[in-house]
Amino acid sequence: MIGIDTNILVAFVIPxxxxxxxxxxxxxxxxxxxxxxxxxxxxxxxxVHVVTDPRRFENPLTMTEALxxxxxxxxxxxxxxxxxxxxxxxxxxxWLGQHHLGRKRLLDTLIAATWWxxxxxxxxxxxxxxxxxxxxxxxxxxx
Length: 143
Fold this sequence. Notes:
Rossmann fold; 7 helices; 10% strand
């Protein structure tokens, strides 16, 4: 399974995103390979928040459109929704303290801990720096 970061979902859906085409190609490749994609409810919540923000995009999605996409990702056969359990929760707290991470790193750390707890070690993200501190993941590129 490959962890799919919020920014990948955003780029996939928003045509004006500079990585839109590359992200679509990479996701299509994963599908052809039969790879499973993993997201969390937090990722989908962040996705809805970002794609409806008129400060980020000239043509943001409406809330209805964003929720339709979140539902699409939730129900897609190749997508697995992974949940935060006790192990992930404890890893989240450990990594926050171990790496001296602050309030702006809470959600990324929770996502990383959730992936880690279910055995995900591969991530597709546009911001590998958000996860390199944990020294626990391999990153897929868009090329």
